[in-house]
Amino acid sequence: MSQSDPLFERVALIGIGLIGSSLAHATRRGNLAGEIVVSTRSADTLKRAEELGLGDRYEADAAKAVEGADLVILSIPVGAYGKVAEAIGPYLAKGAILSDVGSTKGTVVRDVEPHVPASVHFIPGHPIAGTEHSGPDAGFASLFEGRWAILTPPADADPAAVDKLTRFWTACGSKVDTMDPDHHDRVLAIVSHLPHIIAYNIVGTADDLEAVSKSEVIKYSASGFRDFTRLAASDPTMWRDVCLSNRDAILEMLGRFSEDLASLQRAIRWGDGDKLFDLFTRTRAVRRSIIEAGQEVDAPDFGRHPEIQPKKEQAAD
Amino acid sequence: MSQSDPLFERVALIGIGLIGSSLAHATRRGNLAGEIVVSTRSADTLKRAEELGLGDRYEADAAKAVEGADLVILSIPVGAYGKVAEAIGPYLAKGAILSDVGSTKGTVVRDVEPHVPASVHFIPGHPIAGTEHSGPDAGFASLFEGRWAILTPPADADPAAVDKLTRFWTACGSKVDTMDPDHHDRVLAIVSHLPHIIAYNIVGTADDLEAVSKSEVIKYSASGFRDFTRLAASDPTMWRDVCLSNRDAILEMLGRFSEDLASLQRAIRWGDGDKLFDLFTRTRAVRRSIIEAGQEVDAPDFGRHPEIQPKKEQAAD
After folding, report:
1. Residues B23, B156: Cα–Cα separation, whole Å
2. Residue B312: C-alpha distances to residues A113, B286, B300, B307, B316 (Å)
3. Which of A15, A245, B20, B116 has a CA-to-CA distance to B147 between 20 and 30 Å?
């Protein structure tokens, strides 16, 4: 294989929403596939993917899409994995890598593995990247740049296959970590699932008030509330499935969150200013670490004020 | 007074943090004051304000700063209002307008009003704008553009004074609403105070976990968590005082939030997918309304990906 040959001969993308279409763009940009086959069960979405030129071939039938592909990536809601795995299992090519981008990994292994032939390398994955937008129009090639992709290869995974999938994600701009599925699900429960659930919840609470009108909530949202509406605008199907698939870890994190909130509420009720000040000081350092790790923009207000970029030196507080 | 005369002869800015310094910039830009007097009790901050050229005169003593000013604006943590009002009260000029930018209004009226001479127009205010940064370096002239400023004039306020203060905020780029202090405090409890408290709380919860390392929380924060760290990086003194000053409204909103969260938690535990899907769909519309109202950037991920601006047409979901 010469230096310029693509990493894979044929990549089949099953599901072409935000992540699937971003993978299509990144695969194209990096010349990572000889052929990109796009498949989705919605005829409208498949047609839109074709209009956008996301693939080289378009198949409504996932089983047909995976034939002869040496890399197959599922980018569909995790609740649909079992059915799709059952449908494509018999058609997967020998030696192919089957991976995915799902936000939970325990149920993915449970639902997919039984349908994977022994000759296929099943290596679940999860890129830690996204926006609140959905659908084939939402994708873009740079989505994964500088973000982490987590792989959860089984203990007996073929190192060469893991390495090849790692090279794929690296070529998409990601840094790659591996861990076991259970640990993945606990980590994601706190860094992703709980934040989304809390955001959905607070937007729901605000939407239900009688004493404050919907119009007031919207007008004055720049005082904090609007930040939460971004996560709460994420794809409802995807997030329903995440909640159902990672129940135990989510319930554990919700328990801890509520316990801490009750304690904070008590400090507010009894006027314990020192306790409030200590917490509010400690949390400030966490953001600084995230910016230093290159996982957040170093600009006030998420860079919502481009007129003040690049940001001025800040005085110490 | 000719067209080009400043709106006020002398504006005294008491406190020169994010909001105070932004007011200094906006006042200068709009030629809204013949003279800007800056005062803050911290010698270092006053020196820094002078280095930045935020005012025309600098006074460590607030009482000296307000002498002869026809507009005085307090931009200090609300917990410090009583003491400062007591100190400046006797030195306020006849006919002057005394206003503020505090995030709560009930306690502000309670703590300030007793110290205000009858000849002074006390008209509390609150601009719904900010970033997570603090201090005199953090301010910028366009902070208030397109945002709302809420005034809570007393029932017997002089309409001419309210009108003049309204013109000041309008010249800073704001749209102006008036309401009574109690209603302000309930509205802000849901759109601002609750979001900050929830953000502080979740960042604290994540920081305390044993099963997930701090390094993992930081590395994978782009999956949602990092959004919360922005509000949780806000000024600790300011937010301690907000919690202590708006206790009753905050406790009411926290009660509703926790009630809704318990119900959501139950839906997750019992696998009620329809309930989850309904909530997650309803909240999506709220963000759309905020963008349509011009109170949020119309770009995915808060515009963190400038390479995809202006955003492409999104497919319907």
Report:
1. 27
2. 37, 21, 10, 12, 12
3. B116
Q: Look at residue A2 and tell me if it is in a domain.
A: no
Helix (H) or strand (E) holding A35: strand A33-39
ipTM beyond 0.90?
A: yes
Cβ A108 vs Cβ A153: under 8 Å: no
Measured from the Cβ of residue A37, the count of other Cβ atoms closer than 10 Å reads: 23
User: Which of A184, A179, A177 has the alpha carbon at shortest distance from A249?
Assistant: A184
Sheet containing B33-39: give its strands across.
B57-59, B33-39, B8-14, B71-74, B97-100, B121-122
CA distance linking residue B67 with residue B15, whole number of Å = 16
Residue B306 included in any domain = no
Strands A33-39 and A8-14: parallel
Q: Do B305 and A254 touch (CB under 8 A)?
A: no
Question: Based on the domain organization, do B22 and B149 belong to the same domain?
Answer: yes
List pLDDT tens digits, range B224-276. Answer: 999 999 999 999 999 999 999 999 999 999 999 999 999 999 999 999 999 99
Q: Would B311 be classed as within a structural domain?
A: no
**Residue recorded with tokens 């969260």:** B261
Cα–Cα distance measured from residue B15 to residue B39, given in angstroms and rounded to the nearest whole number = 6
Instruction: Please report residues of B whose CB lies closer than 8 A to that of A142.
Output: 305, 307-308
- Judgement on whether residues B15 and B152 belong to the same structural domain of the protein: yes
- Location of structure tokens 């006053």: B46
Would the pLDDT of A313 be above 50? no
Give pLDDT tens digits for A254-274.
999 999 999 999 999 999 999
CA distance B174 to B101: 13
How many separate domains does chain B show? Answer: 2
Q: Structural domain of residue A117, as residue ranges?
A: 8-179
C-alpha A307/C-alpha B297 separation (Å) is: 14
CA-CA-CA-CA torsion sign (A246, A248, A252, A255): positive
Chosen from A283, A298, A313 to mutate, greatest number of chain B CBs within 10 A? A283
Global confidence as pTM: 0.93
Q: Which amino acid is at B194?
A: L
CA distance to partner chain B, nearest, from residue A40 (Å):
14
Q: Find out whether A117 and A72 touch, Cβ atoms under 8 Å.
A: no
Tell me which residues of chain B, numbers 239 to 258, contact chain A at a CB-CB cutoff of 8 Å.
239-240, 243-244, 247, 250-251, 253-254, 256-258
Between positions 100 and 159 of A, the ones with CB within 8 A of B are 103, 128-138, 140, 142-143, 147-148, 150
- B residues 5..44 contacting A (CB < 8 A): none
